[in-house]
Specification:
The chain is an all-beta fold. It has strands at residues 14-17, 21-22, 35-37, 42-50, 57-63, 67-71, 76-78. A 5-stranded antiparallel β-sheet has the order 6-5-4-1-7, with no helix packed on it. The chain has a two-stranded antiparallel sheet with strand order 2-3. It is globular and about 35 Å long. Belongs to the NifZ family. Pfam families: NifZ. Keywords: Nitrogen fixation.
Length: 79
């Protein structure tokens, strides 16, 4: 993440999903559009990065059962 676009959340922070999160094709073993995380599920940020072209912060969040899902800032909130 660049200094010009700091993220709202930090590595190791506990968060909650603000919306249902569905498979966008990132989980080939799951059907596309399958529900991965329910709104309200808790998780922990395990990596922070950004989209290269837009510098949009992207958070990898582990939501139980070792399921890591990429989330945007409007898809999570602090616990």
């Amino acid at each position: 993440m660049s200094a010009s676009s700091p993220g709202k959340f930090e590595w190791g922070q506990r968060v909650r999903a603000t919306a249902d999160l569905f498979n966008d094709g990132s989980y080939p073993e799951q059907p596309e559009n399958a529900l991965l995380v329910r709104a309200g599920d808790a998780g922990e940020i395990v990596q922070v990065g950004s989209h290269v072209e837009t510098e949009t912060p992207v958070y990898l969040v582990e939501f139980g059962e070792h399921r890591v899902v990429g989330c945007l800032e409007d898809e999570i909130t602090p616990l």
